[in-house]
Amino acid sequence: MPLNKEQFLNQFTRQALDERISLFVGAGASTGAGYPSWYNLFKPLAKDLGTELDESTNFYRLAQYYSNKFGQAELRKRINDIININNFHSPLINELIDIGFTNIWTTNFDNVIELNYKSRNILTNKVFKDADLSNIELNKRINILKMN
After folding, report:
1. Cβ neighbours of residue 84 under 8 Å, at least 6 residues apart?
2. What is the pTM (predicted TM-score) of this model?
3. Which residue of 38, 99, 104, 106 has the lowest C-beta tally within 10 Å?
4. What is the pLDDT of residues 96-126, one digit of tens each?
5. In Å, how far are 39, 68, 113, 123, 128 from 55, measured between CA atoms?
6. Which DSSP state fits 37?
7. Which of 70-98 are b and which e, b meaning 16 or more Cβ less than 10 Å from the residue's Cβ?
8. CA–CA separation, 55 vs 59, rounded Å?
């Protein structure tokens, strides 16, 4: 049976107080810190390939095409030129930190989440691959699970 709004809020609040909640954050959360959306990140790459972006564009496939044509090093360079900025202050991320999530699952390609925690002296574990899971210490650090 589905929860009504009041039941959901009560259950969520209990789990938050027990530090048992996780958050999924998409790359759009970093736009407030000056990072590009996936669309804006890949727009110049699509132009180099002579193609247009639309709502059905598969960015992973586009990156592979770019890598095939220009090389993986050039793909990394082009992306790094766009995302290697020192901005990280994000009002949205700071509000999410205040909620008290213990695990954050993200597709973010930047370090905005991690740097906002660091600026508040909160320790994190970054998880990129299975081997990183051994570093997870429950209830001692915030786990940031990178899914890209």
Report:
1. none
2. 0.70
3. 99
4. 999 888 889 998 878 899 999 999 999 998 8
5. 9, 23, 26, 37, 28
6. P
7. eeeeebeebbeebeeeeebebebbeebbe
8. 10
